[in-house]
Protein 1
Amino acid sequence: MKSLWKSVSFGFIFLGVFCFVMEALFYNGVDEKGILQESFFLPLGYLFVFSGLIFLAFHWIGAFGKRMKKSS
């Protein structure tokens, strides 16, 4: 179970970074008509990164709890 939390968290963080890269490569800037080109990749990237950090925090809390249970 421990490795599942870690795998899911790093998967979400990777997807978030991938969304940021896609935003920077394809949808960033102003076109020739003066219209701002934005996509859904930027908020989706933040959502994935923050979700990954939350899952990683759950992993760390679980590991800390197991370590405290062994020491007592």
Note: The chain has two helices and no strands.
Protein 2
Amino acid sequence: MNDVLQMNWIAQHADWFYLVGAVLFILTLRGLSSPKTAIRGNRFGMAAMAIAVMTTFL
């Protein structure tokens, strides 16, 4: 029963998760433009991709 409630909550807030993922992808591109910020940019990209995949499959 708890899993169903959790899945419903994710489904109800999917738009917000996608929005956060999109913002993180934009920050990824911005971060990858300089060698000094490339590590941070990669981390933003990994977080954005994790959010997108989790939202899509859950």
Note: The chain has three helices and no strands.
